[in-house]
Amino acid sequence: MIELDKAGGVWTATLNRPEKANALTEAMLTRLAEIAEQAGQPGGARVLILTGAGKVFSAGADLDAMGEGLATSPVWERLSSAIAALPGLSIAALNGTVAGGAIGMALACDLRVAATGAEVFYPVMKRGFLPQPSDPARLSALIGPARAKLILLAGQRINTETALAWGLYDRIAEPGALMDAAHELAEPVLAATFEHAAAIKRLIP
User: N or C: which end of the chain has fewer CB within 10 A?
Assistant: First the structure.
């Protein structure tokens, strides 16, 4: 349910469970974490792109798996920590709505490119769970504490244009042009040496 393509220094990991809105299981999260960890090793990815198949990036945790403890599993933090630690560029290419715990991997990426119509919502208040530990701080750093509270406490669903205006998304593209937009952002990194790009990334808090 996770597909990995490696081409010219770009690793593309695709959530491929569209019949379930790419709802995440423990096995899927573990595989994504393994990919991110491998991408950060010497000779790994210059650029890591995360995207999804179908019309939804991810509905978050699989509801059946949540009842089995997935909501509090450490695998979420393992994944987001591995993405955040990458020396190369990480891009979330959000082909559709991103919800719940799936927001964590998008927040951990350096850049977020979204298809038109891609919404954001994180229904932790409704579900009775806490967000993943690193998510509130990353969310607040991007859009400010009040807007983070609108999403996490007030349960607001944020549309594409608002997410772009707030800085949660960095670019919007038509669905058919989403991956082109992601690859365009990756081009300067691929044209530079790995050491140069990684050194610049280390300078940015």
Answer: C
Looking at the whole model, is its pTM more than 0.90? yes
Phi and psi torsions of 29, nearest 5°: -65, -40
Please, what are the averages of pLDDT over each run of 10 residues along the chain (205 residues)? 96 98 97 98 97 97 85 95 98 98 97 98 91 96 98 97 98 97 98 96 95
Q: Is 92 helix (H, G, I), strand (E, B) or coil?
A: strand
The CATH number of residue 80's host domain is: 3.90.226.10
Q: Which domain holds residue 126?
A: 2-203
Rounded Cα–Cα distance for residues 148 and 154 (Å) = 9
The token pair at 160 is: 């594409």
Can you point out the beta strands (E) in 34-158? 47-52, 56-58, 89-94, 97-99, 111-115, 120-121
